[in-house]
Each structure stands twice: as C-alpha cells, then as structure tokens.
Specification:
The chain has 102 residues and is an alpha+beta fold. A hairpin with a 2-residue loop joins strand 1 and strand 2. A two-stranded antiparallel sheet has the order 1-2.
Length: 102
C-alpha cells in the first residue's frame, strides 16, 4: 500500500499513517509529495510543548522578519541529519535553564 501511494504520489489514497524508518525519509517523502520542495514553507519545532524556538525554511524568512514577535537567530543553512537519519534540529541535546519563582 505504501509503495503504490508513494510511487503514484497519491498519499491521500493511503488510509493509514505512513511510518518511515528515519526523519530523513519522512522529510524526503513530504517534500516530494508537494512537488516544489525548493519553495516549501516549513516550520519545525522540537516539541509542541517548547515553542520558543523553531527552524523555518528559507521561504518563511520574510514572514519571520515581518513579525515583531519573532526573531531570526541564525543564518540560513541546510537541514542536518545524523548518521542514523535523525533530524539534528530535533534530536540535538540541549541545556535548559530553569528559574524558580519564590
């Protein structure tokens, strides 16, 4: 079922969620399915519980610049994937600072 839907670019015909081995495969299938990956408007968050930081595609940079509530904190660059195919922006370890309110 997956193979037919992916080969025919008919993802809507697949009635169950697509499960892929790696983040890289999932991103490739998603971008292939929309047909114009170069100008795809993509936002990636580490977790929906942690929305203070997100990665945006080049196509969304102008929207970030136009929104006073958002700030670009790094230069554009390619998505990075680990040797295991996991997306670095999601799987990278990070240090969180916590403050206690008394």
């Amino acid at each position: 079922m997956y193979m037919n839907g992916l080969t025919g670019n008919a993802l809507a015909a697949i009635k169950i969620p697509i499960v892929l081995e790696t983040d890289r495969q999932a991103m490739e299938v998603a971008l292939h399915s929309i047909g114009h990956a170069a100008d795809a408007r993509i936002a990636i968050v580490r977790s929906t519980a942690d929305l203070d930081e997100l990665w945006v595609s080049e196509a969304l940079r102008a929207d970030v610049a136009a929104n006073p509530r958002l700030e670009a904190t790094s230069a554009p660059g390619p998505l990075g994937f680990g040797a295991d195919g996991r997306l670095n922006v999601v799987s990278a370890p990070r240090v969180l600072a916590h403050s206690s309110v008394k």
